Amino acid sequence: MRTAALLRLSLRSVGRNARRSALTAAAMALGLALLMFSRALAEGGHEQWIDSAVRLGLGHVAVQAPGFLENGRLEDRLDEDRVTRVEDALAGLDGGALVVSWAPRLSTSGLASSAASALPVRIEGVDPEREQAFSTLPDQRVQGRYLEPGDRLQAFVGIELARRLEIEVGGRFVLTAQTASGQVEGQLVRVAGIFRTGIQEMDEGLVHVPLSTARSWLGTPGAATTVALLLTSSRHTDAVVAELDRSLDGAAGIRVLGWREASPELDSAVRIDDYGDYVFHGILFAIVALAILNAIMMSVLSRKREFGILQALGLTRAETGLVVFGEGLFLTAASGIAGGVLGFVATWLFFRDGLDFSGLMENTITLSGGIIDPVIVPVFRIDQVVLSLWSITVIGTLASLYPALRASRLDAAEAMKFEQ
Amino acid sequence: MAEDHLWWRVAWRNLGRNRGRTLITTSALAFGYLSAVVMVGLTDGMSAELVENGTRLLIGQAQVHASDYLPERSMYRTIGGQNGVDVADLLERLEAHPDVRAAAPRLYGGGLVSGGEHTEAALLLGIAPGRERHVTTLLGHVTEGRAPASGSREVMIGVEMARQLGVGVGDELVLVAPAADGSMGNDLFALVGIFDTGTPGIDASYAVLALDELQRLMAMDPGRIHEVALTVSRPVDTPAIAEALGAYLGSDPPTEVRPWTALRPELAESVALMDSMNFIIVLIIFAMAVFGVANTMIIGTFERTREFAVVRALGSSTGNVARTVVYEGIVLGALALVAGVAMTWPILVWWHRAPPDLSALVGGFSWSGAQWRPVLRVEYSLEGPVLSALALFLTAVLAALYPAWKAARIPPADALAGR
Amino acid sequence: MRRIEAGRAWILTLVGLLLPHPALAQSPTAREIIDRVDRLLRGESSRARVEMQITTEHWSRTLEMRVWSLGVDYSLVRLTAPPREAGTATLKARQEVWNYLPRVDRTIKVPASLMMGSWMGSHFTNDDLVKESRIVDDYEFVMSYDGRREGVSVWEFVMTPKPDAPVVWGRIEEQIRQSDLMPVWVRYYDEDGDLVRTLTFDDYKTMGGRLVPAIMLVVPADKPEESTRLVYHDLEFDVPLDPDFFSLRNLRAQGG
Question: What residues contact residue B90 under an 8 Å CB cut-off, 6+ apart?
């Protein structure tokens, strides 16, 4: 009962000292908003790196035959039976909603020759329709078009490769590779489109051809070297890997890889950026905490008299402390709400379309096999938002304890002296 | 200005009287300064790391070629043409230039490396090992064995090529390269070292040997080199330095000096992109620091409404009250900055000297073809700390002045009445 | 040096062209004529002594060599001059090309990525050794000219690749003398219709009991001042050779 009355007193005190309350709350609210915004930006940047890298590469999850990751040879492929098993496992996946799309690929090394030159290339047989949904490579097209269903002798090639082979869209060239039987066979293709990723190895050495063409040319009906999965978010990788492992249990010659395993370089990049973020957010957090603490301490200094009056009105020392502590809690709660809303709204208003750095660049920037999109879209993650809120609440609460303690220890008579 | 002197003293006494407030404000400012400066240092460190790793591994910060060498890189287009050049003299001239730190001559050849059962196509790179060390870190990446020496048939290859060939240090390799006289140069070399730069393209394709050995293999005179790689005094200013060097070298023999920004434009853009992303981070930190300081000052000053009223009631003018507050802000700001600097510099210097190495936690990775060490490194310039100091100082003074001005204008009676 | 690719192996081209032509029926079709020439490429065994004169922008040199071939799958070339390079040898066995380097006494398999590299600095590539010619399967033929050129009755043919054929040329043109079915020249064009290189034949004479062009000249179109010229000195046909002769062991063995 009495507690309720004390809290009402606290609330009134917040309102009475509107200016001081507003200034203190502003520190907390702005701090929270900045924490939320910068966390969302960092998260968005990360997710985008991972997304662009895995979409140009092996997906969030890659299903392969053992040894293919290390050697990249056609011998280490999933034959028709195993591809069927993988497809069945995918169809029966509980977390099926997590899988945005999947794509079978048959890739091998070979030679691309034209009248002008011949160059070593990575040949990738792809399902045009699935690849459109999966890969960002079709979006990197600078000329012509990407492969389409029904294509047979079409190829999608890198701009550097096209330049060196001296071929244009519609031009013909010959791919030569060792087939499953060990023979070296040629395959004629025509350039359907040309891409430019900015990633040197891709622009000068990657050729996409229709999966059906690759399968019949290489003598590997129904086979794939990789079945790549694209997930809704990189966070689900481990869960999907674990579930696929379970449902493929005992299937010999099938290996399920998460992107961290499949692209260790990207893994390192994301990790080191995480550490940079920790340092940055550590500093930001410290400075936010200090701002809040300073604001509260500063206001306590001049409130001796006020605390004295409370005691003079008949409150015990503990009760005085409680009133002051309650005041702090109300402020913290209000700031938490205000800061949270500010964080969301500001981020949403200004940056929903992403922070665009593209004005700075002519060339694309590549990071560990992915293209860095110069537009970063902030991504809110529940746990990150909760963490930011929690941090502010803890700081606010702890910071409120100090004035409460001070108030409770105050000697009323001393405080009422007309000194301050 | 005896009167002015008096107000300084009042300000000083005020600060001393309100020790708590002074301490809190000082800590806010000092810590804000620390945060801002460390953050700027960290981001500068990242840019520097990117530029250095991108250039220092192999390309150097600028390169001198025969003017017709790029972009075809024909093996015949050596500096000085068919007759070559006095390499020692050229290097001496280059290193005499005040902006050139070091220069290293190089020769390239396209060929084959064969060991055991396997043969791989390779880019043969002839270097002067003693000089190369001052320009690039390539020789520092030797993880097994050692770098090849001049005058002996020794070669080092990348870890990836060694894996593909199935060879190790001590094995014998055959190097084959088309020679300048049309013949097919070939010889046996001892594999003395294996390097691991972490960049697969380099680790799989480069075979490095002494310049004189490659010249012999390719039937070229000692005066024939394709390239001189340079380290310059200020990597950020390389384009201007390269231009100056081009003029400095003149046209005999016809040469061309290219800065890393032209050799690796995507690296230059990465640096620009990262700078701008970091700018936002620095901005956030700085905004919070400024806000923290301003907020503390504003609260502190507003809480003194009563005090100002008393002073006013004693006959001071509004202007003099504001003046005292400004003086207090100046003294406080100066004190806080001294504290901030005293706190910040040791941390900065320590961090710079011993950047935390995260390689136990993460591996290296590549960004725009530049290899990164997993370290969080700090670089400092004078600009960041000075600007931060100035900005925070101004913040402190202005944030105190506004509420003081407002408070001093309230009629003394109202204020004394307790509101 | 621009790398160029021959549609047919030069060794085989020569050997093939040297084989006897069956008598042609009256007014043969383009296809019949080319088919005959093409089938000749799948010749039997031969042995020759050849001089190769290479001229480039930067240097000129002459190589002397001995050449053995068996069908389309095997051939072996061994340099006899200049002395510094004597003994250097190249073996083509099916799809692979190996080099023997006497200086270091090693055999080296030419990796796929260097198949388009120049063979011994000439205007032939390693790939030229390997390419199997299936000209009748891969091309459509049109006789574009039937009449006299510079006083000689010739046919000229335009060969365009069939839609799916795994060949790189946009078009090949060839002139053949009507009287003795000797080729005069072959021109190779790229996709855009630009000339890439020209083969010219000359000095038709009887060697090994047959009429052959003893000289063959390759000129890359983008560097007309450069050339590689083959001169045949000795030529024997139907020599007893079996696939064992084209082994790595024999590649390494001196003398051959």
Answer: B64, B79, B105, B228
Cβ-based contacts of C196 with chain A (< 8 Å)? 115-116
Of C130, C79, C99, C85, nearest to C252 (Cα)?
C99
pLDDT digits (tens, 9 = 90+) for C140-168: 888 899 999 999 999 999 999 888 888 88
Residue C71 binned pLDDT confidence (cut-offs 50, 70, 90) = confident
CA distance A86 to chain C (A): 33
Neighbours of A340 (CB within 10 A): 18
Q: Are A379 and A44 in contact (CB under 8 A)?
A: yes
pLDDT band at C1 (very low <50, low <70, confident <90, very high): very low
Domain segments of chain A as ranges = 2-53+267-416, 58-261
Q: Looking at the complex, report in whole angstroms how far the Cα of residue B371 sits from the nearest Cα belonging to chain C.
A: 26
Neighbour count for residue A127 (Cβ, 10 Å): 20
- Report how far Cα A230 is from the mean position of its chain's Cα atoms: 14
CA distance C178 to B287: 90
Complete DSSP assignment for A219-267: T-TT-BSEEEEEES-GGGHHHHHHHHHHHTTT-TT-EEEEHHHH-HHHH
Cβ burial of C143 (10 Å; 0-12, 13-18, 19+) is middle
CA dist B82 → B220, C181, C241 (Å): 9, 46, 46
Is B360 an interface residue toward A (CB < 8 Å)? no
A177's CB contacts (< 8 A; 6+ apart) are A74, A108, A109, A110, A111, A123, A184, A185, A187, A217, A218
Portion 157-176 of A in contact with C at CB < 8 A: 166-167, 171-176
Nearest-CA distance C109 → chain B (Å): 6
Of C112, C165, C191, the CB nearest to A111: C112
Mutation target to probe the C interface, by most C beta carbons within 10 A, among B161, B172, B173, B183 is B183
CA distance linking residue B298 with residue B285, whole number of Å = 20
Considering only residues C196 and A24, tell me which one the structure prediction assigns the higher pLDDT. C196
Six-digit token string for B301: 């000053």
Q: Which residues, 6 or more positions from B190, have their beta carbon under 8 angstroms from its beta carbon?
A: B152, B153, B154, B155, B170, B171, B172, B173
Is residue C6 within 8 angstroms of chain A, CB to CB? no
Q: Write out the H or E segment, with its range, that includes residue A288.
A: helix A264-301
User: Which residues lie closer than 8 Å to B209 by C-beta, 6 or more apart?
Assistant: B124, B125, B126, B127, B148, B154, B155, B156, B175, B189, B217
Q: Distance from C132 to chain B by nearest Cα, in Å?
A: 24
Q: C59–B120: do the CB atoms touch at under 8 Å?
A: no
At which residue do the structure tokens 């011998």 appear?
A75
pLDDT tens for C198-228 read 999 999 988 887 788 889 899 999 899 999 9
3 state DSSP class of C33 = helix
Hey, what are C170's tokens? 């946009």
Instruction: Tell me the per-residue pLDDT of B360-392, one tens digit each, with 9 for 90 and over.
Output: 666 666 655 555 666 777 877 777 788 888 888
pTM value?
A: 0.74
Question: What pLDDT score does C19 carry?
Answer: 40
- Mean pLDDT confidence for B89-93: 93
**What would the pLDDT profile of A390-405 be if each residue is shown by its tens digit?**
888 888 888 888 778 8
More confident residue, A95 or A237: A237
User: Mean per-residue pLDDT for A207-212?
Assistant: 95
Residue of C nearest to A110 (CA): C112
Any A CB within 8 A of C169 CB:
yes
Per DSSP, helices labelled H in B18-78 are 19-56
Superfamily of domain covering C10-252: Lipoprotein localisation LolA/LolB/LppX (2.50.20.10)
What Cα–Cα distance (Å) separates residue C164 from each residue in A146, C160, C167? Answer: 20, 11, 9
